[in-house]
Amino acid sequence: MCQLLGLNCKNPTDATFSFSGFAQRAGVTDHHADGWGIAFFEGSSQDRGLRHFIDHLPASTSPVAELIRRYPIKSRNVISHIRKATQGKVALENCHPFVRELWGRYWVFAHNGNLENYAPRLHGNFRPVGQTDSEQAFCWLMQELAKSHASVPSVTELTLTLRELVPRIAKHGTFNFLLSNGQALWAHASTHLCYLERRHPFATATLSDQDMRINFADHAEPDDRVAVVVTAPLTTDEVWTPFAPGALKVFVDGRVVSG
Q: What is the domain class of 3-258 according to CATH?
């Protein structure tokens, strides 16, 4: 199946270290080579701006991925995905993360898993472009959120609504996902997800998929805080906390606030 990477930060943070190791799993240290993508929120107006890159080529060899590895990503919310196709052909339209607009904000979604016999009734403005179960699930979530709230609710209200909606999808199979609107990062685990929080005093970290090491103390400010969510631990010398099956966690300003 696919793999997920998400970052939620108190301050705009460089994500290239995490992405560099993550991308190696797309054909070098693992076999997730059916496409990849990354989306990161930017902009001074409540992080409404979004940069979104996808490619049907493996992230380990994609020229677009090489651009991202060299681009100084500074963001408070990042979602990346490397694909091992289960439903839908290997094509650009089936690459995650997917993006939609709701309440005047961009929403970004990426899924790891397989949903069987899943054909939700979509009757609103949210329709899939590709053939994946993942995009269908995202469109249905957006549709039901729009029906539940007239305008953008608080993170707490959104979380309560998601706790009602997510089990209705998860009963169809494996539903590990990341979701963000630039205000928070929601992460749900059916099977495999783990996370860590980096904060002062910062230490050194070594990637598990690449010969790369960094001392975060040389790059971070004392008030920085970063939460990293990933399918399998990215580093060998940090403590990663696994999600319990069925857990929906919410990250704001680089820390877990619910779940």
A: alpha beta
